[in-house]
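Cast an eye over this sequence plus tokens and walk me through the fold:

***
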Amino acid sequence: MKKILFPTDFSPVATNAFVHALEFANTVKAEIVLLHTFDAPSFDSSIFPPNYTVLYNSVELTNFEQFKDEVPKLRAIAEKRNLQHIILSHRLTEGDLTSCIFDITQEEDIDFIVMGTNGVQGWDDFFAGTNTANIITNGTVPVLCVPGDAAYRPIQEICFTTRFRKKDKKALKQVLAIARKTGAKVKCLYVKTASSDVTKDTIKAWEEEFSADPVEFHVMISDDVQGSIYDFIQQKDIDILTLLHYKRSFLASIFNLSLTRKMANYTDLPILAIPAEVE
């Protein structure tokens, strides 16, 4: 069974994302690992306060109590959506949120990460984009980013952005696997700019290779990549937008960190960010 990591601070934004995590887990037949992190009290290392242990225990207890109170609410959401069969495990961890996510992704053999993307209590940088971008750029698993205003709806139309590279095929196959489980269609979008080097023969070869799959190929000619993608998802009533990022060349790529962050900030649908190296 696959595993989904769901970091939460129990805010409304995170709770909204949890609904998406539940439904996504149901789609890909996965269990969910809930993660809540907290920071220990800071202190001057040269003068260790005699009451530091008391302070630390107090903070840990407070977070534990919140965790203990909030988890049943999430389970209630699962029951309300008839998804109580989804296995939920819990991690309450001290430390930096981003570092904890990377560590637990390795420890728990995580396959996906699902998280909210608006500024919320205590995690402003993370949900506003700074750490989210770090997770997307440096992470090793797909990340489903859920804007706070994105109401869940069944996945029927998936937009897969591509540059027709070999690495894109691996990601497309993974997206197609998700599409088959939901009965969705994948609309593969290529925005052809003045500097684009993809030939018609390449596009035709992809169309032939995936002719038996639920995917359509679309080419838009424009130098405004972000605007073209946004127009496309609006026109086609897309439910999830898929973006790839390239670790070594993302700064020079049209699918770079800046684009991913902007799309996450200005659209109200979930974005699935997939590492270019994904198998």
Observations:
- Confidence is low (pLDDT under 50) at residues 119-128, 247-257.
- The chain has nine helices and ten strands.
- The longest strand covers residues 30-38.
- Strands lie at 2-7, 30-38, 88-94, 112-116, 143-146, 157-161, 185-192, 215-221, 240-245, 271-275.
